Amino acid sequence: MLDTFDLALLELLQKDASQTAERLATRVALSPSAIARRLRRLRKDGWIARTIALLSDRLADRRIRAMVLVTLGEHADQHGKALLLQRIRAAPQVQFCYELAGSWDFMLVFDCAGIAEFNEVAERVLVADATVHRYETSFVKRQLKFEPFVPLDSASVSG
Fold first, then answer.
1. Are residues 116 and 78 in contact, defined by beta-carbon separation less than 8 angstroms?
2. Which of 114, 65, 132 is nearest to 94 (CA)?
3. How many whole angstroms separate alpha carbon 2 and alpha carbon 17?
4. CA angle in degrees (0–180, nearest 5) for 157-43-60
5. For residue 82, which of 128, 131, 122 has the smallest C-alpha distance?
6. Is residue 53 very low, low, confident or very high in pLDDT (cuts 50, 70, 90)?
7. pTM of the model
8. Which of these, 12, 40, 16, 15, lies nearest to 25 by C-alpha position?
């Protein structure tokens, strides 16, 4: 179970995971060694999946990003769906994949060097078999907000 110290650490790390235990100790009322132990435990227990760097938008200015909504075929079976998910996971150009409730089955976020790469990946991943009935693409004009943070409190986190 996560306590208030764990939640405070996770909140701070979501904003800047490069902070040292010493720096975190100025914001959370624990010693740097206690913070380091907690961080090791949070990683070991799977509360911190991985630590990454979010690159500047300037590095993506000449790239194509697309939101792709996918509908599976009416008779898509579990095996076909599993193969589709395997192709999605294997394509580094597909950055996110969400399973949806509603008219669409999946939403994928693509990041590609250009339209040729997008077309090649979309055909290889989405048109490889009859599992995908239809997909619709919207290209991103510009990023206006990107803050993938999860607000945490003791009521929202369990076991």
1. no
2. 65
3. 18
4. 90
5. 131
6. confident
7. 0.83
8. 12
Asked if 17 contacts 23 with a C-beta cutoff of 8 angstroms, the reply is: no
With CA atoms as reference, report the closest residue to 153 among 19, 43, 3.
3
**Who's near 66: CB < 8 A, 6+ residues apart?**
109, 110, 112, 118, 137, 138, 139, 140
Instruction: For helices 115-126 and 78-90, give the axis angle rounded to 10 degrees.
Output: 150
Residue 38, CB half-sphere, CA atoms under 13 Å: how many? Answer: 23
pLDDT (tens digit per residue) in 85-101: 999 999 999 999 999 99
- How long is the chain? 159
**DSSP category for residue 146:** -
Sheet of strand 106-112, all strands in order from the earlier edge strand to the far edge: 94-99, 106-112, 64-72, 132-139
46 φ, ψ (degrees, to nearest 5): 85, 10
- Mark 122-145 as b/e (b = at least 16 C-beta within 10 Å): beebbeeeebbeebeeeeeeeeee
Spatial CB neighbours of 47, under 8 Å, sequence gap ≥ 6:
2, 6, 10
